[in-house]
Amino acid sequence: MANHEDFQGNAFPDLRVLYPDELQLLFSSAELISFKADEAVIEEGQKGESLYLVKSGQLLVNKRHEDNVYEVGSITPGDVFGEASVLYQGTAGAEVRAIDDCELYVVPAETVHMLFDSNERFLRATTQLAERRAAASALAVNPVFSTLPMAVREVALYNAKYVTVKEGEVIIHEGDEASFMFLILAGRVEISLQHPSELDGKIVVTERGSGDELGEISVITGYPHGATVKALESVRVLALRNACISAWSGRYSDFGYALYGQVYHKLKENRAILRAVLGDKEARGMTINTIPSLEEYKLKHHL
How many helices (H) and strands (E) does the chain have? Predict the structure, then answer.
């Protein structure tokens, strides 16, 4: 059962903004549960129904991206986790697994939402924690941004903008000038091109999800956005200025080469899709013919 002393003082720093009566509400609804080493506490994709407070033990956060699983962080006594799923009433974006035997206080989502309603500071602090963790995870698993030093990724998190896009809204319009590159933190998007011979027609190129980048093609080609990106569900993105991306490309060669390679790979994929609709010449003109040669790119960024 829950020990009232564990909810006093600084045992859980993220709860400091709660008032005594709110801590009492949290304490009264919390259940102390033990987990064995290597036992999964949260499965990626699981519906979030609880907030977890770590009394003892350590846990590992793993995130699947494409065909790989990445270790993106650890959780230790005094930490809170599961906040994003409760906050946004969605599914878990990563797996949390016990490294050794641990004890966790499990608080029902209903109680947490009551506290959100009564304490704006708690809501704001939880939102900031969820955003920071989601962004750090997305940067860690992304094949381009993972090449940056940790310190640079932390700066990126500090300077970037967090944006929520509702289902059906457009994040990027085909033909618009490019100022930002985006990293998807949660949700899925559709990427499409205007059909050249059908006024209201479009060619769906692909879908992208958590951990994927958007708008990077324009960073390399220098052209306006070549596709429209629409939210298929509520989407949370991290917006990074193109000027920062270009600066990192010149300063960190691994990042510069990874970004170029990712863009070239995507343009080849797009060409294959468009070739079936438009023919090879027009498909090449809209895709791989827009990218500068590697030598030109290296010269521009002093790689």
Answer: 10, 16
The two tokens of residue 106 are 């499990």
Domain that holds residue 272: 145-301
Residues 202, 290 within the same domain: yes
What is the per-residue pLDDT for 93?
82
48 and 158 share one domain: no
pTM over 0.70: yes
Residue 3 has pLDDT above 80, yes or no: no
Last residue in a domain, options 141, 164, 189: 141
What is the number of domains present in the chain? 2
**Which of 141, 171, 200 is a domain's end point?**
141
pLDDT level of residue 1 (50, 70, 90 thresholds): low
Q: What are the DSSP calls for 32-50, one per residue?
A: EEEE-TT-EEE-TT-B--E
Dihedral (CA of 252, 255, 261, 262) sign: negative
Say if residue 166's pLDDT is above 60: yes
Task: Say if residue 20 is in the same domain as residue 126.
Answer: yes
Give the residue from 182, 179, 130, 139 showing the smallest Cα distance to 157: 139
Higher pLDDT, 91 or 220: 220
- Output the domain CATH number for residue 60: 2.60.120.10
CB atoms within 10 A of CB 201: 12
Helix-, strand-, coil-residue percentages of the chain, each rounded to 5: 40, 30, 30
Alpha helices in 60-119 (DSSP H): 83-88, 109-118
Same domain for 170 and 130, yes or no, is no
The overall average pLDDT reported for the chain is 90
